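Q: Sequence in, structure out?
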Amino acid sequence: MRNVKLILSYDGTEFHGFQTQPNLRTVQGLLQSTLEGIVGHSVSIIGSGRTDAGVHARGQVVNFSTSSRVPIEKWPIVLNTKLPDDLVIQDAELVPDDWHARFHATGKEYRYRIDRSPYTDVFLRKFCHHVPYPLCIEPMREAARQLVGRHDFTSFCAANTPVTNKVRHLYAVELIEEGTLLTIVCRGEGFLYNMVRIIAGTLLDVGRGKLSPDEIPGILAACDRTHAGLTAPAKGLTMWKVFYT
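A: Exactly. Output:
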């Protein structure tokens, strides 16, 4: 058996998230069934993390074990000829038998993209949250800086999150402007359910004057989901990169 690592990109619009679900089109389910058709045996796909319905990925990482002798450099070609256009294998690599896409990850980067043009851009509509009203960017940047570091992010995750320990370390929360496109970049050791989307929704509230940057420490300290902003739509979020040592 060989342990194969894949880097994949997908447009999450037509997927019901990453994780396999009965009778639903998911990234894990589609990739797993495609692989099994190639190798002729059952395959278990291990992902670096889950993405929700409508969320995209540029650098999702998975691994699987196989007895197949397909040369490692051929895996992207073999898989991409059989996969649909909204799921693409970018790279393949042989890794040690004990290597695990989730447990060996040391951090992740997510990007939330906002289209600030007056009217929806037809070419961005699947990958950006359209916000046509004016945003004050400098207060948003100040609020973002308040989120950097190790904090309890209970206020910034879905209320039904089953995880007990909600302390996470964010290395950076940055805003990048490119014309009418505004990108919120979040890098950290790990993320809670809906955490980046709630950060984006909260920063948008700051940008339109509903919240002050000075309120961010209090929102963190409250450990109460109702204190933070709305959860921004899924389509603006992309899992950008997974980091390994």
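The longest strand covers residues 167-178.
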